[in-house]
Amino acid sequence: PFTYWDSADDAVALLDHLGVDRAAFIGMSQGGYLSLRAALAHPDRVAALVLIDSGVHVDDPETLAGYRGMIDHWLSDEPLGEVGQMVAGLILGEPSLMEQWIAIWESRDRSTIAHPATALLERDDISDRVAEITCPVLIVHGEEDQAIPIETARDLCAALPDCRGFVPVPGAAHAPNMTHPEVVNPAIEAFLAEVFG
């Protein structure tokens, strides 16, 4: 099955194609899973990490079962309905954006989530390898994230050798970069300016 390790290798292959030696990897949720694995598999290519509502652990069996049920429904021909509402609430937590995103999801080929969903459900726990990630890291996390509790992000920042900052985003759920860009973007800009001078 396709994994986040495969995605990390693909991202580095893109850097090769573009002639880029090193880059900052900025990833939200699954993008963070990819970025963390890139930092482990290709430390010489990852200059810095920005992790937005991401982590290193795997979900407990009950949570995984819930995700499997949502994904099975998503991949069916049925309208998204309550599952769409639940996913939009979990990710966005912002009622003004939820209906807009549900409409976007309904209009797309929903089968395209099969590989990312498999990677999500079958990801490996890399918590025992955190000390190997030596590049500078910024962690941004929504205080209301129900998918990945903010406490796990605080713990990750404390465990990383070079966590340069932890930015809790009040009122944000799982996608503060979408719902609170006025907080997230300046934090990322300041971090990148510090790292790259």
CATH architecture of the largest domain: 3-Layer(aba) Sandwich
Number of helices: 9
Strand order in the sheet with the most strands: 1-2-3-4
Can you tell me the CATH class of the largest domain? Alpha Beta
- Give the overall average pLDDT: 95
Major β-sheet, in short? 4 strands, parallel
Approximate shape: globular
What's the number of extended β-strand segments? 4
Number of domains: 2
Assembly state (oligomeric): single chain
Describe this structure in words.
The chain has 197 residues and is α/β, with parallel strands linked by helices. It has two domains: 4-57 and 125-196, Rossmann fold (3-Layer(aba) Sandwich), CATH 3.40.50.1820; 61-118, no CATH class. The chain has nine helices and four strands. A four-stranded parallel β-sheet has the order 1-2-3-4, sandwiched between helices. It is globular, with a radius of gyration of 17 Å.
Please specify the SSE layout and strand pairing.
Layout: H1 4-18, E1 23-28, H2 30-41, E2 46-52, H3 61-74, H4 81-91, H5 95-107, H6 114-121, E3 137-142, H7 150-159, E4 163-169, H8 176-179, H9 181-196
Parallel strand pairs: 1-2, 2-3, 3-4
